[in-house]
Amino acid sequence: METLELEGPDEDQMMTLVLNRPGQLNSLDGTMVRELDEALATVAADPTVRVLRIRGAGRGFMAGGDLRWFAGMFADHPDSEQRRKAVTEQIRTVHRTITSIDALSVPVVAQVHGACAGFGLSLALACDLVICSTTAKITLAYSGIGTSPDGGSTYQLTRLVGRQRAMAMALLNERIDGATAESWGLFSKAVEADQLEQQTVEICRQLASGPHEALARTRRLLRAAPRSLEETLEAEAISFGDCAAGNEFPEGVTAFNDKRPADFRSMTGGES
Length: 272
Known about the structure:
The protein has 2 domains: 205 residues, 2-enoyl-CoA Hydratase, Chain A, domain 1 (Alpha-Beta Complex); 46 residues. It is built from 11 helices and 9 strands. α1 runs parallel beside α3, α5 crosses α6 and α9 packs antiparallel against α10. The protein is 50% helix and 14% strand. The strands form 2 sheets. The protein has a 6-stranded mixed beta sheet with strand order 1-2-3-4-6-9, sandwiched between helices. Strands 5-7-8 form a 3-stranded mixed beta sheet.
């Protein structure tokens, strides 16, 4: 791949997706869009993967869309209506990355340092956990170039930090650091930059050693579209029963009663 590296799965069954355009702060272009599709399909098709980590090469996570890419689209479509259709379709293609992450059956962890802007923020927020350095630089950035957000960031921001903070980030182009992102509940955890790799890998190992099917079901429950309390309770009851029908839940109960660590790695998650 030209713009990405896909590493693993390693001995912990962790796959790592590296955004690899460091000279452009890993900004998104048409090639990266296509390669993200390919990489996420590879992860989805590999039954040995138990956790996916996404990180950026070089000085940052991702600085958003490559504006030279957009300039090329504008030059190719000087008519405003043609430009509207072309860019709308391109953004729909970009959005497949977000829906592909959502559809995965394994936890996805973003490891964020340096710049995390525009679609980079959307990509991070699409993940289940975001571990960042305290000095990461986080901003939506869209209003600064005269456009509105994409990648589901308007959906995620209002749910995570509330309408007022979301409005300030979107309308005023406010930039926050990683420590603030943690305190707001925007990201999961902020650590010192020299501890970022180690702490993220440790969290990924913890997830990989956990009950695969139970984590997948939990992930789906938490990611579900807003439901009524009654609908949520029924979805939880069905999921709990599905876990009981598999191998992991009985192993967890037995291990607890036997006063030993549960061995989830050997579990298939299928019905007994």
